Queue: 2 jobs
Job 1
Amino acid sequence: MYAYAPSARPVVLDPHGAANTCANCDARPHSVCNAVPDADIARLTAIAVVTHAEPGTTFIQEGDPASHFFNISAGTVRMYKLLPDGRRQITGFSGVGHFLGLAVSDTYAFSAEAIDHVRFCKFSRARVRTLLDDYPAMEKRLLAVASTELVAAQDQMLLLGRKTARERLASFLMLQSRQGVMCQSYRHRFALPMSRGDIADYLGLTIETVSRTLTKLRSDGFIEIPSATEIAIRAPAALESLATGMA
Amino acid sequence: MYAYAPSARPVVLDPHGAANTCANCDARPHSVCNAVPDADIARLTAIAVVTHAEPGTTFIQEGDPASHFFNISAGTVRMYKLLPDGRRQITGFSGVGHFLGLAVSDTYAFSAEAIDHVRFCKFSRARVRTLLDDYPAMEKRLLAVASTELVAAQDQMLLLGRKTARERLASFLMLQSRQGVMCQSYRHRFALPMSRGDIADYLGLTIETVSRTLTKLRSDGFIEIPSATEIAIRAPAALESLATGMA
DNA sequence: CGGTCACTTGATCGTCTTCAATACCAGTGG
DNA sequence: CCACTGGTATTGAAGACGATCAAGTGACCG
């Protein structure tokens, strides 16, 4: 088990780097928001509440009434579910442009915490509903988001149910190398905003196994570990083979 | 590992029990199809291709071009993903009224096989797209389906990542008791259309562990096992506690 | 009846967990 | 500048849960 104390992780993105209107939001190109045409962007701005969350802050609580949708515009978030005795399963990490809060139920199905400094837009569900009626493209976009997440969830089930610790770490690192924050100067090198405990709870392992397996992957020449929060992939093809269970 | 030989399982529902038009389809009340109003039901019938699949037949192949949507109207289906060496993860079981084939990608993200005799409607994706433009309610319905599946997938991640074998079986049995085919005469008694191998690959376990754990749950008084394909729950509340990790 | 196949049960093994100690890193204050 | 502190990460040794290997049981069917 892992102690979930909030801790200062390296800030990867400046949370104050973008203006507070939808028109020049740097997350908009990557998010469902761009289904609203430029001309009507004021309607979006009107109902968006820009919010900041410090590292370790829980801003969605599993079981609470699902009153809002969220759109991440800076930082990284972990979504998770807990068992009564504290066992935790992280269902995913969300970064810039990600949309949270989809649920038919009237309560949230998971909790969400800021890993580093996070900025997000809150939208009242009721107001979004009226927006959806006016912009069918947005509804289509939401369906696309949900479908994509569903595919990712199925991949994760395969990982959790059938892959070895080594394969899980390989899969995780390849995923991060694709969608993580890359280092400008070196390809295949990226930052890990989340802790070993987060990684463990995402992969269904323990901290110790994550640490040991990373060390092993390094000594086997697959990766380098410049610091605890940075990874460089030495052999992308070989690591990908590992990740897909070819080895 | 499990040998995936097609095998004759008890047929739970008569696949020929319903008429071949959407108007009197017994799956329609439970499916996305009822977003199309009665008056226009002919449009739906026009593009629906009713198909049957014998036990063990694969009718969706992971990686194939995603040309159709599917709607199950009789029988039970297993969806799964494979690793190159044959390890299998079943991502879910689908019964009457379930909708399959959601994906943004142009290829299927999973395979689907008939467990017993299955009847389903095939819809060309292209034709459904035009239908969706005319019936926004159907799009909303699809979003609801996707959201529901997403929540289920997150629950399954928690199960696969953090629950013990005993808790997994308890969760599975409670799920089946809710959505499975109930015996008419006895409450808390239901049929299991899937084999032990299917259950194992769904829960991230082996056949042997599934069998042993079921035996243990029986000897502990939680359940009865009238036959290999039938389960009766003796202590629903206690089993539910187990399933949610309270014990 | 004999054969097949799914399921059950038993014995042993291995991967990952648990428990425990140590190393590391950043921040703080002497 | 360096010792001290709190927290994270790494490493080591022992243990457990589920996997694997193997044999036995039972149901269905030709």
Job 2
Amino acid sequence: MARISPAPQRFERRVPDIGYGVLDELVGYALRRAQIAIYEDFEAALGPMDITSQRFSAMVVIAANPAIAQGTLGRVLGVARSGVVQVVNGLQARGWVTREAHGTDARAWLLKLTAEGRTILVKARRRVHAHDARVSQRLSTTERDQLIALLDRLGSKP
Amino acid sequence: MARISPAPQRFERRVPDIGYGVLDELVGYALRRAQIAIYEDFEAALGPMDITSQRFSAMVVIAANPAIAQGTLGRVLGVARSGVVQVVNGLQARGWVTREAHGTDARAWLLKLTAEGRTILVKARRRVHAHDARVSQRLSTTERDQLIALLDRLGSKP
DNA sequence: TATTGTTATACTCTATAACTATA
DNA sequence: TATAGTTATAGAGTATAACAATA
């Protein structure tokens, strides 16, 4: 498997001799710190493939739900309809996704991966797995699963 | 304490009958989902005070490190110098932060909270604590601390 | 009337690079 | 030469609103 160089780390988790006040006690800020670190590594690993995290998740969702409509994809990704157009345009311009006519609803497009899109996704998925293992390398498998489970329970809606 | 209404939730964590493929197994995506939910709630709670998460963290850091220089603040927040200027301009325009002359280095500014800034920060901190408790309400105290500890260990640098 | 996708537009966030004034 | 801050500018990303076609 290709060796992907780790992120160049522009962001210092803790600047020496600086007090972080209440930030150190907040889940939200711990999340932000982690997210910056993860995003940097993702970008370093997938950027050379011209894949952003949003493009990746869009392709994964399309692959897992062939012939998904744009509106649904937007709901899944949490992006407005107009934003989905941009994302899909980008994927289509790269030849990774096609818009096909919906059989019964002439307003809607159905999204599918092209053969090239599937090939790229396989490669990207490998890199993303390596990336995910890298950013959670200081966690045991149990801790990693625990972390995901805890994150899934965050949110203000009980 | 004022009752802050919870976030309006535009983002659905799971859309019914939709497969999420590999996304469900990734720390990075769990983080993203959680982050969207948390950000929405933060915005709903602090937005009325004209405080963004970045303004909040900047003020906390300035409060915890009076007479901090802009460059240092940028390193702490993980923002480029030019970005710090924008943030500080916004805080200064609201009368919450002042730029004072550095005694020995005429190039640098020292940042301090104004009296009004300190008052606002006290109020904001209360709301942020309520917000943080709200988004982690489905976690026990132990789980919450555990989550923060796990998040702090994420990152590609061993 | 409501919905799907599109366009136009704008706003936020952030970065790079060039600039100034110091050091 | 290097550094602190500023400005200009541009590029993502995202949202709202108006619109066309269709339901």
